[in-house]
Every structure is written in structure tokens, then in C-alpha cells.
UniProtKB/TrEMBL annotation:
It comes from Sporosarcina jeotgali. H(+)-stimulated, divalent metal cation uptake system. The gene is mntH. Keywords: Cell membrane, Ion transport, Membrane, Symport, Transmembrane, Transmembrane helix, Transport. This is Divalent metal cation transporter MntH. Its main location: membrane.
Amino acid sequence: MSNEKNGWLRESSGVSLEEVNSTIDVRNKKGFWRKLLAFAGPGSLVAVGYVDPGNWATSIAGGARFGYLLLSVILISNLIAVLLQSLSAKLGIVTGKDLAQATSASVGKKMSIFLWIITELAIIATDLAEVIGSAIALNLLFGIPLLAGIAITTLDVLLLLYLQRKGFRIIESIVIVLMATIFIVFVFEVISSKPEVSALFAGFVPRTEIITDPSMLFIALGILGATVMPHNLYLHSSIVQTRNYERTLKGKKEAIKFSLIDSGFSLTVAFLINSAILILGAAAFYGTKLDVTEIEAAYNLLSPTLGVGIASTLFAVALLASGQNSTITGTISGQIVMEGFINLRITPWMRRLITRLLAVIPAFIVTWIAGSKGTGELLLWSQVILSLALPFAVVPLVKFTSDKKKMGEFVNSLPIKILAWTSTVVIIILNVFLIGYIVVTGHDLG
């Protein structure tokens, strides 16, 4: 790794030169499993964004209102996520630039600023979900009022700064432990809910009513926005470079292979968790005539409905783990896109404080005015905002990785190009349809 590259890593991701060289050097690792372990980590950080509190709101609402029908949306979203995240990692490994840097180098200054603003809004929407989710979890577990819980979440900034000083491996390890906690909780919850197995598997088959029913499409787009998150594409293309691999043809091929295994495994775990959340919502609440479109309602009704006393408490513990997990990646992503698009470098603590305050302020105002119902609606809409911002990240990513001049022999093959562009077109068409419907009818799809 060159000094120039080390310097870029230190400035853009907050990882110091010593941390990169001493803890994540993969050049001298021998054997498949040792190398895989050395490369493992970035996939977990990326997968965190796929199981944040925003996913909970959309998946619970989808399961409670439409049964298992939207499991197919989770499956398709996850397949798209695996494809796009693999392209993101490949871009970073091959070019030595993250997606924000590559995009900025290909467009004018005004367009860079525009794309930065769009991406910042998506990151704020992401952070908003984490703020609300953590505040709700604190309220459910300890009775802390929502407004106080929202204020407490600003302290996450100090926690993240402390973790980063300890090294990137520490952050990755904590994320993996929290992900495992969430996974174990939902395995227990799903088993306790006794879902109808035949209907469950049938839910993974796509149905036309998902597109034709606007209210179902709204939730489906929320799931898509909560699963394939734009900031994750910028994040992945950057953090794969925290591995000190040989910058040769062979070294890049090896890095791409292990990165694909790492992210594929982590995103599969995220897929299982997201599916479990929707399955839980469907098995526990669909057809009961209970109004369960908010996380608090799910918590209050879960134990009585399942007949398992600890079910609600475990649900809240997993929610708190999810919120704390996601704040780590959201704030790192914010610094990456700010530096990549507009080359603005500010101190890490200031960057994280700004990002968090931009999420805390609207959450605080909505909670003050509308209470818990307002936060639930804000959580759902934050995920739709992510879905609307997604094409601005996906189009450049697919374009760059399909460019022979930029990627050389690592350019996307024809089948990958077809799949990637098809996914991009589907995302854009669904978003245009949703916006058009809202503008024309003025319906409240929430």
C-alpha cells in the first residue's frame, strides 16, 4: 500500500495509518480461511444498514397488513443488494477510489454538489431511523420518554469517536456481536410465533398486486429503500480499501473474491433477519384486526399474542442493538461522501455531531407535536426517501463498473451488465410510479 493511499484512508474513513497497517494487513496471510478471516468485516458493516430500525417499521407494517405477501420484495431487494454491493466493492478495489470520488471526477462541480446534497439527505433519513429506533427501544425497556431518548442518542457521537480511536477492527467486532444478537433474538421470536409454513414459502413468490395496489407498493418501496440503501454503496467502496492487499492483478482478484464471500454471507444474515421480522409481524398480527403499524404496538402486543412473556423484552433489546449498530456506519458514510463529492474535510467529531443533529431536530419536533404515532410515520417515510435517492447512487455505480477504460479486465460481464441495468430500471420505474401516484391522487399511502 502506497503512502498516498494510506493517507487517503486515514483522511476519508477516520482509520489511522497505524491501524490500517497493524491490524488489517492481509498480505502475509496463508491459507483460505486465514485470508477470509482477514478480509472479513466490511460486509458486516454494510449489512448493518440492511437491518436498521427503518427495516423494522416497514417489515412489521408489511407483515401485519399483508401477511407473507411482501417476503418476495425482501428476497428481490436482497438479491439486488448483493449484486450492487459486490459492484461497489469491486469499484473500490480496482480503481482505488470510492463511489463518491469516482462520481465527482466524472461530473462537474455543480453536479457534484447536487449529488452530495441528495446523498446527505439519504444519510440524514438513515440517521433519523436510528435516532427514532433507539429512542423507542429506550422507552420500551426503561420507560425513558421519547423526547429524552432522542436527546440521549446524540451521545452516540461520543461512543463512535471512542470506538474509532480503538481501531477499525474493534468497530467491526462490535457490529458482528450486535448482528448476532439480533439474529438470535429473531430466531427465537419466529419459532415462538409458529408461522404457517406453506403460506410463508408462498410469500417468496412475487405477486402482481404488489405493483397494482398503491398502499402495498408504498410499503414495498419502503422495504426496498430500507434494504438497498444508497449510503451503503459509498461506504462499501471505501472500507474495502482498509485491507492492505497487494495492488497487483492477482491481489485485486483475490480481494474481490474474498470481499464477495464476506458481503454475501453478511447480507444473507441480513436477509434472514429482515424476513424474520416480516414473518413475525404476519404470524403474530395478520388477520387479528389489531392495528400494528408501529414498533411500539408490536412490542405491546407481542407477548400477549404469542403467549411468551419474554418476547416483547427481547424484541426491544434487538431494536436497541439495531439502532446502535446502524449509527456507526451512517456517520462514517457521511464523512466519506462529504470528502468524496466536495472535498470538504472537517474534524470527525464535528462531522458526526452535524449529521446527528440534522436527524435529531426533525425527530424531536415531530415527536413533540405528534407523539409516538408521528415518529412511526416519520420512520416509514424516511425509508421511502432512501428509495427515492437510490437511483442517484446506482446509475453511476453500474455505469463505472461497466466502463472498460475504468475497470480494465474487471469490467462487468454482459450478464452482470444486463442484471445491473435491469435492477436500476426497475428501481427507477417503481419510484416514478409512486411519485406520480402521490402527486396525481394526493392519497395518504401510509
